[in-house]
């Protein structure tokens, strides 16, 4: 009977830990290295930070919306988005690290909520543009520590409640 209670408490604690894990830990970066464009949505004329973590050499970054940028080994660089970038458009940002190519999207803010269609425009169906939309850059140390404290408090409370119930049942 005690083994069942202990297993239940352990399972409850593991579930609490899994539910409080940062969602960024589950995000998948399908590029060969840790390439990032921050923020992923920017206004025309705005600045983006280009990061090429894990690349053993310099990385060349190209896009139709800013000049060619060279990122140092395991470093970051800043690019200025062209003033004439089309609001609402999504531009491809290509990272090249010793021939290994990674591509990410950069969305230009300020577009209309409904597309305008002219007689010469063909609209092809596409998937939903989901994601965090540039609202989430990174977690800072304070947020990580606060999350860890909450998880530890939940685990401690679980153990205390289970032990208290076990002590009351012995009498």
Helical content stands at: 25-40%
Radius of gyration: 24 Å
Strand content: 25-35%
Please count the helical segments: 2
What is the residue-mean pLDDT, rounded to a whole number? Answer: 75
Please identify the top-level CATH class of the largest domain: Mainly Beta
SSE string, helix = H, strand = E? HEEEEEEEEH
> Oligomer, anyone?
single chain
Distance between the termini: 16 Å
Let me know the number of strands.
Answer: 8
Assign the CATH topology of the largest domain: Immunoglobulin-like
Low-confidence runs (pLDDT<50, min 5 residues)? 22-29, 112-124
CATH architecture of the largest domain: Sandwich
What is the molecular shape? elongated
For the record, the count of structural domains works out to 2
Strand order of the largest sheet: 2-8-7-4-5
The description of the largest β-sheet is: 5 strands, mixed
How would you classify the helix and strand content by structural class? Answer: alpha+beta
How would you sum up this structure, described in words?
This protein has 171 residues and is of the alpha+beta class. The protein folds into 2 domains: 1-22 and 139-171; 29-138, Immunoglobulin-like (Sandwich). The chain has 2 helices and 8 strands. Strands 2-8-7-4-5 form a 5-stranded mixed beta sheet, with no helix packed on it. It has a 3-stranded antiparallel beta sheet with strand order 1-3-6, with no helix packed on it. Helix 1 (2-20) runs antiparallel to helix 2. The longest helix is centred in the C-terminal third of the chain and has 30 residues, at 141-170. The chain starts with a helix and ends with a helix.
């Amino acid at each position: 009977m005690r083994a069942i209670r202990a297993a239940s408490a352990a399972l409850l604690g593991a579930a609490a830990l899994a539910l409080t894990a940062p969602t960024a830990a589950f995000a998948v970066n399908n590029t060969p290295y840790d390439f990032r464009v921050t923020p992923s949505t920017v206004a025309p004329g705005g600045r983006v930070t280009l990061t090429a973590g894990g690349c053993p050499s310099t990385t060349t970054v190209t896009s139709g919306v800013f000049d060619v940028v060279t990122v140092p080994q395991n470093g970051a660089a800043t690019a200025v988005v062209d003033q004439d970038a089309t609001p609402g458009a999504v531009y491809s940002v290509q990272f090249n690290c010793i021939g290994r190519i990674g591509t990410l999207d950069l969305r230009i803010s300020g577009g209309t909520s409904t597309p305008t269609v002219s007689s010469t425009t063909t609209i092809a169906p596409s998937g939903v543009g989901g994601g965090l939309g540039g609202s989430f850059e990174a977690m800072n140390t304070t947020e990580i520590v606060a999350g860890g404290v909450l998880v530890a408090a939940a685990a401690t409370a679980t153990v205390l409640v289970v032990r208290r119930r076990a002590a009351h049942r012995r009498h």
